[in-house]
Specification:
91 residues, Alpha-Beta Plaits, 6-stranded mixed beta sheet, 43% strand
Length: 91
């Protein structure tokens, strides 16, 4: 199991990016969450089997779809929490 924290920058707010991330994560049976940050970036935490999380990272880093354009993704490893589900946080 692996858990990562990601900060995505580019055109990622106001374009449906959080829902896009949630759809991908749920389709891959990952746990975690996604939320907008005040600086215009989007924070993502995802947890699952190592190989699946790595594929998820690739999907997010390569997201260029209609209005979504990810320019950069910063990734760091986090301790596994074993939560269930993937949420859009609105804080």
């Amino acid at each position: 199991m692996k858990r990562v924290s990601m900060i995505a920058s580019g055109r990622v707010q106001g374009v449906g990016f959080r829902a896009y991330v949630q759809d991908i994560a749920c389709g891959m049976n990952l746990n975690g969450w996604v939320r907008n940050l005040a600086d215009g970036t989007v924070e993502i935490e995802a947890e699952g089997e190592d190989e699946v999380v790595n594929r998820f990272i690739e999907h997010i880093a390569d997201a260029k779809k209609k209005y979504i354009f990810v320019e950069r993704v910063q990734i760091s490893n986090k301790p596994v929490e074993e939560n269930s589900g993937f949420l859009i946080k609105r804080d």
